[in-house]
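HUMAN: Now follow token order:
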Amino acid sequence: MVETIFDDNPEYICVWMIAEPITSVTVSIMKNNKFQGIIGIDLTLDYIKDVLSKIKPYENGFVFITSQDNKIIGHHHENLNLTDVNSYLSNLSESDYIVKQYPFTITGNEEWKFYVVVPKSKVFAELNKIRFIFIIVSTIIVLEISYIVSFTIGRIVTKPINN
């Protein structure tokens, strides 16, 4: 719900009241080390979630970000938003997922983190195919070498008997 309130005071034109969780980013505008103003943007968690949910690494993976206080923001499962990332990550199976975090700063003084979570089965799928092909080719080569060695030894052993 968004509501606009107008005021006769020219310093305050309108106030936005949003009845859902948001994150705000503000930056001071400085010129010659003198404060000129401030610029900011408010992003709803739904907007962040919608943007991040479109990112699908390895088709089945997902991404999310955390705020400087380790709260999840923009997870594709809405019930996880604003929960502690450490408790969430402790529930992910290390044998099933690869989790990478990339710290970043927005205004330079707080560290947020961008997480990428991908299933190991997808990451290693190509490697598993290559390994399977290697095993098949190796087996064929070993069998061929065994046949050649057996045939050669057989010829060497049976040649004196045939003469």
